Every structure is written in C-alpha cells, then in structure tokens.
Amino acid sequence: MEDQCGDILKSATVMFGERLDPVVLGEAMAITKARTVFVAVGSSLQVQPAAGLAGVAADNGARLIIVNAEPTPYDDRASELCLCCPRSGCAVLRCRAGIC
To answer: Which residues form the Deacetylase sirtuin-type domain (predicted)?
Structure first.
C-alpha cells in the first residue's frame, strides 16, 4: 500500500532483521510478567527477543500453552502443549495435558 507521495505505508509490524521498539518490548515484558496464562499459537518461538516472552511468562508463574505445527524450544516448559497440522484445519496430531 502506498500513500499519495508513493511512499510505502507500513503497519505496526517488524520485519525480520529489524529491531523492536524498546518501549514496546518493555511494555510487552511487563504485561507478560503479570499474566496468569500465556498462549503461543502458530509460532516457532525461535526468533528473539519476542520468542523469549514465553519463557518470561513461565518464569513468572503463568500457565504456558503452546499450540503449534512443530516442536518449539519452549515445549518442555509448557503446562499444555498441542501439536497440530494446519493443513488439516489444525487437526490434533499430539496433545499433552488434555487441552485439545
């Protein structure tokens, strides 16, 4: 999408390799630390620093719930883990702790 001058308009997204706004990241950390439940859906949880929020949540006592097509580095920290196949409408392939 372009504006009237032909410049590309960009939503509040971060492209691979770009730095996150430190204020936004700080707010995300504070919110994450205060949660009792943290749900990560459809993320490899490998791209830092955002992926680290899952660990921050678990470290601060939140129930960590991961729903993903493939294993993640945080699976062993999850209270609930659901491995599903997105091609089949997220039909459950394997689930731990009975959430699926």
So the answer is: 1-100
